[in-house]
Amino acid sequence: MDVWKKHLAELYKQHSKKQKDTKGEPELFSKVRGQKGVLGVSSTGIALTGRAAREKRKNKDRYKSSGRGRYNFSRLQQINDARAEAARNYRMDDKKHRSEVKTLVDKFFDSIEDKKEEIVDKVSGTKKHQPLDFRSELRFKSPTPFRQKHYYWSSSSDEDYIEVMPAKEDPLGLPRFKNKIDEAIYMAKKKLK
Fold first, then answer.
1. Tell me, what's the pLDDT at 167?
2. Is the pTM here over 0.85, yes or no?
3. What residue spans define the domains of the chain?
């Protein structure tokens, strides 16, 4: 049993040495230097060899996997954030601007609280007594789209009907036809009767 294993090991060593010693055939455009001096790429950036295509795909995958490229956590992002913060502080120094921002923030949080109360009322089925507030009526309410599905088995109301005026009849009492062929067939049948 040991003899055939030794023989197999020798064959494997010979075969692996032969594979290492033989150079593969070079691809047709492997020596072409194209865009940015990269081997196997045309002057327009198209990969001409399999190796160049694999490298290009690998680079693209690395770029995509790192989020939005190299902007996140970069020095450029820190600079832009610092500039935005400085501009925000400059604007907030103006009292008029600060009061406008404060009113907008207050309105936003008030609307969130109102929505919370509405949801609680819907879920619990109870509604708290609310004092009259005329300001709520003056607020602009965004229109809600009319979404109603009608199925052929559903009951229809009076609003679902559409009044259609009957078409004017031909003075001779002949029906209207889609084309001349249908008209000729109708006339031929009428003459046979």
1. 63
2. no
3. 75-127
